[in-house]
Structure formats: structure tokens, C-alpha cells
């Protein structure tokens, strides 16, 4: 099963992708994570992406499509994938159709996670993750059960993203509305789009996604 999770930054795509990985063995393909890894490793892709990511803008289509194309050649994608944060522009969506056709991969579902702006800004402003296992936390809504200790893996090391600050969040939202939101119409017109309520709590969103996927 191969699916796309669509929605603004902070909609909860990463959280649900991680749950789908645990529950269904799907592989999470987060272009944000791949690009952050490239930045950390100082590769040419990372060098090209670093400044624009920090500001909250979108990395160029060619770079991102190249990253995804290479990733789709890895054998583990046969388990099924969740596209998280890709495609983010119409050009990326067209490129993905072509890549999937060329590689013989079928797209089963495009799931829109709908939320509202005030909520995403508040979610992003307070969020952080375990540096070791990636479990997500939030200053207000989800602190670890034992303060300073990850519930999942026991690590005491946490991190916040460089672009989770007020200015970059505004730029990211603007990029979402200008570049990414047209994809909702694009997949709707193709008869592929289904929506879940991204404002519901994490388990309820998971149930709604499960009901769609069967
Ligand atoms: P968000 O929580 O904002 O959805 P991501 O981790 O998906 O965060 O992406 C972080 C940043 O990485 C984006 O703001 C953008 O600069 C870059 N990025 C990730 N995916 C893409 C993409 N498909 N196209 C262009 N830029 C991307």
C-alpha cells in the first residue's frame, strides 16, 4: 500500500506516518527528514538546501525530485510507502506520477489532514522530538511522562528544529498556501482525495486514517 499524506506544516503528518510505520510496516518517506539528514551530512544536496530550509521556503523541485527518485530505488519501498511532505508543488506531483509509472508503483490513497492556521502555529511553536528515536513531544500538549526522559526509548536528549520559529513558520505556511494547497484540488479532480480531521486527537486521526485504508 502506498499513500500520500497532505496537509500544512504542523498538521500531524509525521506523527501519523510514524504510527503507520509501526502498525502496518510501511516505510516513511519524509523529504524534510531526508533533506535535514543531507544538511547534517554536508552533502551537495544539503549545501543547496540549508539556507532555504532555515528560512522556511521550499527547496527546488529538481533537488527534491532527485532525492525521492533515488529513494524509490531502495528495495525496502516494496513494503509500501507513506509520502510525508512530498509532493509539495504541482511540478512535484506531476513528477511523482511519472516516477511511479516508470517504477511500476501504484498509489492507493491521498489523505488530506485538515487543520486550521492558529492550531498549526501553536503546535509548531511548542514541538520538539527525542534526538534518539524521533518520538514527538509538545511543551503544552504532550510532555514525557517522566520529565526529561523519552517515553519510548528512555533517552534524555531532545531537539527542536531550526525552522520551528515564528518567522520560519509564517514563511512555511505561506509556501503551503501558494504552492502545496493546489494539490488538494489536483488529487480531488483525479478522484484520489480523502480527508481526515487533523484537529482531532492523535488516536482519533489514526482511526479515521485506518477506516480509509481498510
Ligand atoms: P513541515 O513540518 O514544515 O511540513 P518538513 O519536515 O516536511 O516540515 O519540511 C521542512 C522543510 O524542508 C520545508 O520547509 C522545506 O524547506 C523543505 N522541504 C521538505 N520537503 C520538501 C519538498 N517536497 N519540496 C520542497 N522543499 C521541501
Describe this structure in words.
The protein is an alpha/beta fold. The protein is globular and about 50 Å long. Helices cover 49% and strands 15% of the residues. A hairpin with a 5-residue loop joins strand 5 and strand 6. The relative contact order is 0.19. The strands form two sheets. It has a five-stranded parallel beta sheet with strand order 2-3-1-4-8, with helices on both faces. The protein has a three-stranded antiparallel beta sheet with strand order 6-5-7. The chain binds adenosine-5'-diphosphate. Residues 9, 31-32, 35, 52-53, 56-59, 64, 85-86, 88, 92, 163, 172 line the site of adenosine-5'-diphosphate (ADP).
What's this, in brief?
This protein is an alpha/beta fold and 214 residues long.
| Run of helices and strands | EHEHHHEHEHEEEHHEH
Bound molecules: adenosine-5'-diphosphate
Unreliable segments (pLDDT under 50, ≥5 consecutive)?
A: none
Biggest sheet overview: 5 strands, parallel
Structural Rg: 17 Å
Question: Key features?
Answer:
binds adenosine-5'-diphosphate; 5-stranded parallel sheet; 3-stranded antiparallel sheet; alpha/beta; 214 residues
What layout of secondary structure does this protein have?
Layout: E1 3-6, H1 13-24, E2 27-30, H2 31-41, H3 44-55, H4 61-71, E3 81-84, H5 90-103, E4 109-114, H6 117-125, E5 127-130, E6 136-138, E7 158-159, H7 166-180, H8 182-189, E8 193-197, H9 202-213
Helix pairs in contact: 2-3, 4-5, 6-7
